[in-house]
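fold-stage: in
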Amino acid sequence: MASTQKIFLLPCECSAELEIIAGQAGGTASCPACGRQVDVPKLREFSGLRLKSVDAAAAGGRWGPRQAWALCGLAVALLAWGGAAVVGAVPKAAISADQIRAGVQAEDDVLLYEALQQLANSSVARMPMQEELELKRRFHSASGLFRGLITLGGLGAAVAAVAGLALLASPKRP
């Protein structure tokens, strides 16, 4: 019997039920319990027969909106969190610490001391360099994108969890 056909239950005199399909309408079928030949009604009379329940494996194999929501939520969560892992990486510094150390070591200690004294006694704030501004802008952009992706991943995970719980809580379809 094809899995897409409806299976009807035809009662026998021995109180057993025969499984029949529409293709058997108007013919006869053997009872599995007593072996009697039972007349199968015409197709228009099948409406009075009970339908056989579909087993849980067949019912669970169908794709529905709950499965789609669960898969979409999971996909969004994984993609967003994967993107957050990439974006969350620390951006490269605009100014190299090694270059600063090399410059300090190359200068005379007396000149460095005088420069630090002037800087400490100075009341004028230094304007940020273009590289510092660019680093700050990239950091703020990356951290905003990171927070957004983490939030989107959390929403995707929540959708997947709710859809999964709905799948678990739903009764099996006949």
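fold-stage: in (second)
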Amino acid sequence: MFATLSCKAQIIPIEQQLTYTGDIPDGAYVKDVNGLLNDYVGTWATTQNGDRYEFQIVKVTKNYLNTTWDKLYMRYKIFNISTGKVLVDVTSETDDSPFVVRGAYLASTGTHYVLNYIGHNNDCGQNGHVFIEVVGSSKNQMNIFLSVTGDVSPNCTSPVTTQILPIQKMLLTKQ
């Protein structure tokens, strides 16, 4: 009986991830036990400065270094409305693609979620953290913005790149 109890995975609510005391133990499951990530799941869109921004967010369960995590993954497409020219489209990328924006953590307050972002011109500074926050009582609007890390690698052969994701807060509507 003792062996059965000691092998049971420890469940850590996702909102306690940042305030968890000590290291998260091997075999633990950082789980969305209260369904807080569900509000973010879906397709979100807006139009700004002649461009259409569409974001698809899904909830996934992934294993990493002997720990199971509930996370959000975000794919996006940005195109010019008048010309139809696609500026970037990562909607068909697989989960292991570096261009899929991957969840990092839910703020301990539960008010926003942070994802790690790498753009197609990562070597020249197209990278950072994407902050998303569902707003309004109907939960059909979401704020999004990129906090640019701007790390530039020695492989960068051109000036620092223009950011493709919004660096100013942008309001999206659930589709």
